[in-house]
Design goal:
Distance between the termini: 96 Å
Radius of gyration: 22 Å
Strand content: 35-45%
Oligomer: single chain
Strand order of the largest sheet: 1-5-4-3-2
Largest sheet: 5 strands, antiparallel
Helix content: 10-25%
Structural class: alpha+beta
Shape: elongated
Length: 177
């Protein structure tokens, strides 16, 4: 008499493979992802907010990309934002990981810190320096994040500070002399 085959290992393997494929697809092609080009990012922003946007500046450092943009519906001094992206699928896709507004003038910082061994930290210094009021900046709690001789225009600088204890917050400015 013939023994029945046990096909549960095959079914279990197929289920795990389908779940892994779905997870990768969602992570790389989900609703908060876009392609790598500036045009793809602009299309993503316009689709996300259902209106025209003006991309002011784009910066990329390693696994992080940041975009300064302005909502096309508002006055030029209102409705300005920064959006941070993280690389997915070997850099062919980017996933949105944060968003913040920025004011009319001056610089601000945004970023994220993730615990682990080693910890991961991304910091963006951004803002409107078209009036040239800020000559340079430095984080007192992360002195490796600094820059002098800032240009008059939109500022967008990205730093990756892996292995630090927390997200730097003490941003200090120097005025032109």
């Amino acid at each position: 008499m013939r023994r029945p085959r046990k096909c549960w290992p095959i079914l279990l393997t197929a289920a795990v493979a389908l779940y892994a494929a779905w997870s990768i697809h969602t992570s790389c092609f989900g609703p908060n992802t876009c392609g790598p080009s500036e045009e793809a990012i602009a299309q993503y922003l316009e689709a996300k907010f259902s209106r025209d946007v003006d991309v002011l500046k784009v910066a990329q450092t390693g696994r992080v990309k940041a975009v300064l943009y302005q909502d096309g519906q508002y006055e030029p001094s209102d409705g300005r934002y920064i959006m941070l992206f993280e690389r997915r699928l070997f850099g062919m896709r980017w996933r949105q990981m944060g968003m913040n507004t920025f004011g009319r003038e001056g610089l601000a910082c945004a970023g994220s810190w993730h615990s682990g061994d080693p910890s991961r930290c991304e910091v963006a210094v951004y803002g409107d320096n078209r009036n040239g009021a800020v000559e340079g900046y430095l984080f007192a709690d992360a002195p490796q994040v600094c820059r002098d001789s800032l240009e008059s225009g939109y500022i967008l600088d990205l730093y990756i500070l892996d292995g630090i204890d927390c997200l730097p917050r003490d941003l200090q400015f120097s005025a032109p002399q």
